[in-house]
Write a structure and sequence with these properties.
The complex is a heterodimer of chains A (about 230) and B (about 300). Chain A has seven helices and ten strands. In chain A, about 30% of the residues lie in helices and about 25% in strands. In chain A, helix 3 crosses helix 4, helix 3 runs parallel beside helix 6 and helix 4 crosses helix 6. Chain A has about 230 residues and is of the alpha/beta class. A six-stranded mixed β-sheet of chain A has the order 6-7-8-3-9-10, with helices on both faces. In chain A, strands 2-1-4-5 form a four-stranded antiparallel β-sheet, covered by helices on one side. Chain B is an alpha+beta fold and about 300 residues long. Chain B is about 70% helix and about 10% strand. Chain B contains nine helices and four strands, in the order ααβαβαβαβαααα. In chain B, strands 2-3-1-4 form a four-stranded antiparallel β-sheet. Classes of the chains: A alpha/beta (about 230), B alpha+beta (about 300). Chains A and B meet through helix 2 and helix 3 of A and helix 1 and helix 7 of B.
Chain lengths: ~230, ~300
């Protein structure tokens, strides 16, 4: 356990001696850490250090080779498959590939998780519009198709889609990788605002020069282990 | 969101899937329609012809030759007894005097020649229903042979046996053609849905990340599959009905040679509705299976 854990609430994420291997290649080795609620966590390290793998393990997109992972009190190894959708609804996940669907407008892209979570389409559209406002995209951008947006706007649209179900945890993989410094700073600022609003943000980044919020907790991965 | 709202959303997504590839959808419906039209056309013909053939088709006949010297009262008793046998639809007596007179008339012995003693026996002729099995007729014949007053029994059943075998073979061919067509259609649909679902992998991945249940992801594909096969079946019925109308005149001419009036009798309204509904259900199930497999594949490869 680490100093960031708040004494009154259990950690939101706990990794306990987690190994992850792909064949004979070890990506994570005996990884242990925990993340408290409403933290801004930066997972950093060189390419191949296992940052994306950590996010995918938290989202239960992959299973650890050994060790245990607990998210919001649920031990993922013991989670029944039918409960997985419910767990994912409590998270917002943005992978490196933003996966914005080109056959529909940005607004409809953002509304999709809301419908998948069981809301009526009209309500989903209203919540999607609100989410777009939160990330600074207006109605015009909402009506546009993803390919018509800039890289920074696409990243914001993906953020809005991840936030539309009001998740407690936001997992973001390399959100600033392909953005100019101004757009990157705007995205980080947005993420900081979500933390202030009570969302836990875990962001993977290979360490480009983006100014991070003052209270950011940094978990540095290197050679399959936590080094800081 | 209620189950109705979820399904309404899935229906709209299914319409969007179809709208996204209208050419492919129409091609699939046409393919299904044409493939199903063949067995349906044959089935409609069989349905139409069945009552007509039942009218003209005679069942096997059992000729019971009565021993000479049996009284006409006993012959009548024999007729009544035969009429009560299960499967017998008609019994008539050819009296020996009547048969002799007919024979004499045909052979030219009636005029001039000295009348000879009548050597012919009374004959009781029992006609069976066309639906009776040859084995049952043979059992009845064996039993009648042992009756008192019966001299001999003649049963001409080979033609009936052959007709039954032909009818069975035709029914089997129809069933095989129909079954194979259904399997073929289901396989074509499964392949089409898999390709469609594979091409929408990104949407599947987004939905899975968002916590959508597999049923939510699969449902639009299943509805689209139901629409494909349902509309295909409706098209097939239309093609089959049209084809039946076209051949009606020729069949009517054939019927006239049997002295019968023939008109196409379309099945009752519930039957086409049931066929469309069954096809839609098959489409729903096949497409759901295919989409589930594609979704599982997407999950495994993510």
């Amino acid at each position: 356990m680490d100093v960031y854990s708040t004494p009154d609430l259990p950690p939101l994420i706990t990794f306990d001696r987690v190994d992850k291997r792909y064949g004979s290649r070890s990506v994570l080795s005996q990884l242990s850490f925990s993340v408290a609620r409403s933290q801004f966590v930066l997972l950093t390290g060189p390419s191949g250090a296992g940052k994306s793998t950590v996010l995918r393990l938290v989202a239960a997109l992959e299973q650890p080779s050994s060790g245990s992972i607990t998210v919001a009190g649920e031990a993922l190894g013991r989670l029944k498959p039918r409960m997985l959708p419910l767990l994912r609804r409590s998270m917002g996940i943005i992978l490196q590939d933003l996966m914005l669907l080109d056959d529909r407008s940005v607004l409809h892209n953002v509304a999709l998780p809301c419908v998948a979570a069981g809301n009526a389409w009209r309500e989903a559209l209203a919540r999607a519009a609100t989410a777009l406002q939160r990330v600074g995209l207006d109605e015009v951008a909402g009506r546009a198709y993803p390919r018509e947006l800039s890289g920074g706007e696409q990243q914001r649209a993906a953020l809005a889609r991840a936030l539309v179900n009001h998740p407690a945890l936001l997992l973001v993989d390399e959100p600033t990788a392909h953005l100019d410094p101004i757009a990157a700073a705007q995205v980080v600022h947005l993420l900081e605002q979500f933390v202030v609003a009570g969302v836990t943000v875990v962001m993977a980044s290979h360490g480009e020069s983006v100014a991070m919020p003052a209270r950011t907790r940094v978990i540095a991965l290197e050679a399959a282990q936590v080094v800081a | 969101m209620s189950a109705v709202t979820t399904r309404w959303f899935a229906l709209k997504r299914a319409a969007a899937l179809i709208g996204g590839q209208p050419g492919g959808f129409l091609l699939n419906v046409t393919l299904v329609g044409m493939a199903l039209a063949v067995p349906l056309f044959l089935a409609i013909i069989a349905y139409t012809v069945a009552p007509w053939t039942n009218r003209i088709q005679a069942g096997p006949e059992l000729n019971v030759f009565v021993a000479l010297g049996t009284s006409s009262n006993d012959v009548e008793q024999m007729r009544l007894k035969l009429a009560t046998v299960e499967g017998v639809v008609d019994v008539r007596v050819i009296a020996r005097d009547q048969a002799f007179a007919e024979l004499s008339r045909r052979s030219g012995l009636a005029s001039g020649a000295t009348p000879r003693a009548n050597p012919l026996p009374d004959v009781v002729v029992a006609r069976f229903a066309a639906t009776i099995s040859p084995a049952a007729v043979e059992r009845i014949a064996a039993s009648v042979r042992a009756w008192s007053g019966v001299d001999s029994v003649r049963l001409d059943i080979e033609w009936f046996r052959r007709a039954g075998a032909i009818a069975k073979a035709v029914g089997m061919v129809l069933a095989v053609v129909g079954g194979l067509t259904l399997v073929l259609i289901a396989l074509v649909l499964v392949a089409a849905v898999r390709v469609q679902a594979e091409s929408r992998r990104e949407e599947t991945a987004v939905l899975q990340l968002a916590g959508a249940r597999t049923s939510f992801i699969v449902r639009p594909y299943a509805y689209a599959g139901a629409m494909t096969l349902g509309l295909g079946a409706a098209l097939a019925l239309a093609i089959a009905a049209g084809g039946t109308m076209i051949v009606e005149r020729r069949v009517a001419a054939l019927a006239a040679t049997f002295g019968q009036d023939f008109r196409v009798a379309m099945p009752p309204a519930w039957l086409p509705a049931a066929i469309v509904l069954s096809a839609a259900t098959l489409g729903l199930a096949a497409a759901a299976i295919a989409a589930r497999a594609a979704v599982a594949g997407a999950r495994d490869s993510k």
